[in-house]
Amino acid sequence: MTSPIEQSCSLSQALDFFSERWMLQIMREAFQGTTRFTDFRKALRIASDVLTTRLTALVEAGVMERREYREAGQRARTDYHLTGSGQQLALVLAALQQWGEQHLPSDVPGITFSSAAGRAVAVRFVDEDGAVLDEKDVLTK
């Protein structure tokens, strides 16, 4: 049985929202620049109805937004873009990928996170003074 604290915990809510495998895979594609429905479908090999449901959930949560576009001679269509809230998930995805690269290595490349200068970046705990902490020095309550 889930405790009332677990039911209202923001971590639990975030895990519930992103627990379905397609959600994070859609986010991965969005961070790699995919915006169009057909491109998400092709990259992920996902059924249209499943993709529609997941994209709708991401839009309703404020993680993505719909934008209309029209190619010359074509009808108006909708594509999907990360919002500021969605962009903040880069840190989460980078941390998951960093852990996966260390503990579940794969030959398939993930998202490339780098600084504006093109230098590799890593996710770390940083205290309020800006000092980088080792994971073993971070306490939880």
TrEMBL record:
HTH hxlR-type domain ranges (all copies): 9-108
GO molecular function: DNA binding
Xref: PANTHER family: TRANSCRIPTIONAL REGULATOR, MARR FAMILY, TRANSCRIPTIONAL REGULATORY PROTEIN
Coiled coil segments of this chain: none
A Pfam family that the UniProt record links to this protein: HxlR
Protein's organism: Paractinoplanes abujensis
Taxonomic superkingdom: Bacteria
Protein name: DNA-binding HxlR family transcriptional regulator
Keywords: DNA-binding, Transcription, Transcription regulation
